[in-house]
């Protein structure tokens, strides 16, 4: 296995664009890559271009009729009633020109990352254009047309016979991936997200544990609104380490939505850059402890594309290459490059100020509730451990 890390990117990934005012904006890919370049953490030799996923690969997860509908929609040939039935042309997932090609490229980017890691060309691979975890077999949902993670997991199973641990730290529940493998004991899904009582998609309860042979292989940690760093990280550390030890995967695929941050406009959590330092560190540790280093990471949500996403996503790459050049001031050149385009004042530091937000009144109650949620989520693992020691 190579100790090389690869960064999957091309300008064409920015073609996945619903409209100029839609919150999902792949400009964040350029902002992140430019930040990494400005600190000298990435060279052209690290960057590999995504390929287009074939129809056959998309059909590993998606209904052929749905794929055909996406093609027709992107050509302006799908009628309104039919589009709505496929989740297309909605407020969340509007139709845009050539949407099939743009979406298939995002899926192909994740498959490119998979092949680099599984063939030994790289130890770790990062594809920030991916992470579209809400797509279903026959329906688009929540800004997601095709579900690149689900396709990649099925591809990992079919081509490499791998047991896959999927870890989702997006503030929104990774529903599309969970339901794709809900009855499969060779895929373990772990999602830590804001409770669905307040947030799309409304799923991801603790009692969603899988079904049939897959029962006991789905784990959900729905944290309370306004959860802060310490409580979020306690939940993540405990869940990830215990689930990884239980499942012992061949490869880890992490979805790295950056929308649990306090500044994100679509969610209600109160985390800071502190969690985005720890998320990749722990994933990296799991990859080397159980998977021979095989770690594939994708992007996901993240709607403050100026102040949050570039810093959070840069930390994944810096962890992959074991570069600690991410403290103190952000490069002046990066701020100067983008400040005139940004509608908000750009951050000056890698870390957030201590007074980023006012004190949360219910902090002790939220912390206790989250601890109870983790206990419920991990109860099957912990109870089995106890019975084995009796």
TrEMBL record:
Pfam families: Hist_deacetyl. Pathway: Ketone degradation; acetoin degradation. Keywords: Acetoin catabolism. InterPro entries: AcuC, HDACs, His_deacetylse_dom, His_deacetylse_dom_sf, Ureohydrolase_dom_sf. GO terms for biological process: acetoin catabolic process; epigenetic regulation of gene expression. Residues 22-317 form the Histone deacetylase domain. The keyword Oxidoreductase does not apply. One of its GO terms (molecular function) is histone deacetylase activity. Belongs to the histone deacetylase family. PANTHER family: HISTONE DEACETYLASE HDAC1 (PTHR10625:SF10), HISTONE DEACETYLASE HDAC1-RELATED (PTHR10625). This is Acetoin utilization protein AcuC. It comes from Mesobacillus selenatarsenatis (strain DSM 18680 / JCM 14380 / FERM P-15431 / SF-1).
């Amino acid at each position: 296995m190579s100790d090389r890390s690869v960064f999957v990117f091309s300008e064409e990934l920015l073609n996945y664009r619903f409209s100029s005012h839609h919150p999902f904006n792949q400009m964040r890919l350029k902002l992140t890559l430019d930040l990494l370049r400005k600190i000298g953490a990435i060279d052209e030799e690290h960057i590999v271009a995504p390929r287009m996923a074939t129809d056959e690969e998309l059909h590993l997860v998606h209904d052929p009729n749905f794929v055909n509908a996406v093609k027709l929609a992107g050509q302006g040939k799908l009628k309104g009633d039919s589009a709505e039935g496929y989740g297309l042309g909605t407020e969340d997932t509007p139709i845009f020109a050539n949407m099939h090609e743009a979406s298939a490229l995002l899926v192909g980017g994740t498959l490119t990352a998979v092949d680099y890691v599984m063939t030994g060309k790289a130890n770790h691979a990062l594809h920030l254009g991916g992470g579209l975890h809400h797509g279903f077999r026959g329906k688009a949902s929540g800004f997601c047309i095709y579900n690149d993670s689900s396709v990649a997991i099925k591809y990992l199973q079919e081509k490499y016979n791998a047991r896959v641990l999927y870890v989702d730290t997006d503030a929104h529940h990774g529903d599309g991936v969970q339901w794709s493998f809900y009855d499969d004991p060779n895929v373990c899904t772990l999602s830590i997200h804001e409770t669905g009582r307040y947030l799309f998609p409304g799923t991801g309860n603790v009692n969603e544990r899988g079904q049939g042979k897959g029962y006991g292989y789905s784990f959900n940690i729905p944290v309370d609104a306004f959860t802060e760093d310490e409580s979020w990280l306690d939940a993540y550390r405990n869940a990830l380490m215990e689930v990884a030890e239980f499942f012992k995967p061949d490869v880890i695929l992490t979805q790295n939505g950056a929308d649990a941050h306090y500044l994100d406009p679509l969610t209600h959590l109160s985390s800071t850059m502190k969690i985005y330092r720890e998320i990749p560190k722990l994933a990296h540790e799991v990859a080397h402890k159980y998977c021979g280093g095989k770690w594939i990471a994708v992007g996901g949500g993240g709607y403050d594309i100026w102040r949050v996403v570039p810093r959070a996503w840069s930390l994944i790459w810096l962890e992959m290459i074991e570069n600690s050049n991410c403290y103190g001031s952000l490069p002046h050149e990066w701020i100067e490059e983008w400040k005139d385009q940004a509608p908000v004042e750009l951050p000056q530091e890698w870390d957030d100020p201590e007074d980023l937000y006012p004190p949360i009144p219910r902090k002790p109650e939220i912390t206790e509730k989250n601890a109870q949620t983790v206990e419920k989520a991990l109860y099957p693992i912990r109870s089995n451990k106890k019975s084995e020691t009796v």
